[in-house]
Amino acid sequence: MKITKVLSASGLVVAGAAGALGVSALVQHTPAASDTPQPAIIPVAYLASSESAKSYEIDGVHSGVVFRIMHAGAAPFHGMFHGPSGTMTIDPDNPGATSIDVTIETTRVATGNNGRDNHLRGPDFFNADQFPTCTFKATGAKAAADGAMTVDGELTLKGKSLPVTATITPTGEGEFRGSTRAGFEAKLSFKRSDFGMDTYIKEGTLGDEVQLTVFIEGVEQ
Known about the structure:
The protein has two domains: 2-49, no CATH class; 54-220, Lipocalin (Beta Barrel), CATH 2.40.128. The chain is built from one helix and 15 strands. The chain is mainly beta. Strands 4-7-8-10-12-13-14-15 form an eight-stranded antiparallel β-barrel. Strands 2-1-3 form a three-stranded antiparallel sheet, with no helix packed on it. It is globular.
């Protein structure tokens, strides 16, 4: 995160914080109107950046999304989506600078049964032909217990965007094939009926609430 500061005759003015990509905000100081000529103000700007901020590209081969939904009111059923893509910028010292952009291809749903997978890709559920992707985007986070962060973001599914809250926990760091990597696990839930996906809810065959666990291995940029 970068902070722009402007030094003027009236004192020190904090101009603001940039986003996770480090784009500085511009602040212009305008002297008050007066009959007395005002001295020229020459801003002296400097940048203070957080060394803890790190950006990652998601490695889709080593990342995925697991979903959990109740079946027949009896037991939870799990499926997953392979190969999520996107970027993350994580700043543990300044959680507000955190930025997350994850894309899931709805055609890549996998439950271990071809007939069920094709049904999920169809109009009753994800309607993958018309809506080939699902996205989660967030800017800013709050520190939580044990190094985790709480992130308010926007989930877009079947063309509709709604706010959701995710908890993100770091899982480790390591080296692989010459690149530095970090792992994260995110958990969130939503009601599928809110996105117009209400097949089998009234019948009690499938639950309304869907829980997502997103496991991400990011390559440090």
